[in-house]
Each structure stands twice: as structure tokens, then as C-alpha cells.
Amino acid sequence: MPVHWTITPQAPGTRPGAFALAQSDGAEYRLDLTPHVSMGPKGFVRMISISAAFLTLPLLAVLGTPVLWGLLPFAALALWALWYALSRNASDRQKLREEMCLTRESIKITRINPNTPPQHWQANPYWVRVKLATEGAQLENYLTLEGGSRVVELGAFLSPEERAALHDNLTRALRHLR
Fold it and tell me: What is the pTM of this model?
């Protein structure tokens, strides 16, 4: 699940990870955003296996000839490049995430990128405005937070529907804490 809420104190009967308004005024909302996992371990094995099978088809025509030894390194290199690209994508995806902590006193957002230092943003939630740009934006349902002197995007790797739902939940949480 790419959007995971942790709310303390939690309302009774709320599923873990789901959004619900907190029960008291001293509430803390924590949000963890992660990219979708489009290919799991089984999909990885299937993709490599299918690619290896298709790469061996042209090699069957030259089996037993010296041409096979000329083509074999290129087929192996193509298969290794696919394996490396898929592995690198999976490891970078696991490192990418956004974390938000929202209390009555502050809102803190940390974006953890794969190969760069984390980015931090902090503001007073009373002055923060949540905006969802539906037209003329970089992304469909582009979600931003404005507070202090900066504008911060939130959940750029989420789907447009997830960003719209996140906008509604975040607006409700901010309204509850004010």
C-alpha cells in the first residue's frame, strides 16, 4: 500500500494504515508514502525467463556453427542488462519514500531519495494550505503544501486518484488540528 497513516490516539474500529480522525486534541498524524511495487519477485523471475527464452530462439538457428560464439556474448549481455536494470529499479524504489508528521504545533515532511541526502520541510500547520491543481499542472491532481516561504509537492509518485484522496484526508486532518 503506497499510503499508510498512523494516527495516535487511534479511533476504535479503524483498520491499521487507514485514515480516521484522532480521538483527542493532542493527536499525531503520521503518513508514510512509498511508490507502487509493479513487479514482485515472481514477476522478476518470469521476465528474465521469458527474455532468456526469446534470446535463445535465434541462437537455435546457428547451433553448431562458429556464428553461435559470435552471437552468444551479445545475448548474454542483453540478458544481464535487463537483469541489472530491473534490480536497480527495485532497489531504488525501496529507498524512495516520503514521511510526514503532523501535530497541532508543527508539520514536518521528509523526502528520502535513493542517491541524495534527505530533504526536510517544516511549517506551522495553522498557516499551511493544501492545494490540488487539477488543470495546468505538471501532473494530474498535483498536490502541494504551501507554508512559510516554500511550496512543497507531496506524493508525486502516487496515482492521480491517490493524490486526490490524500488531499481530502490531509485537509480533514489539518482542519481537525486547527
Answer: 0.72
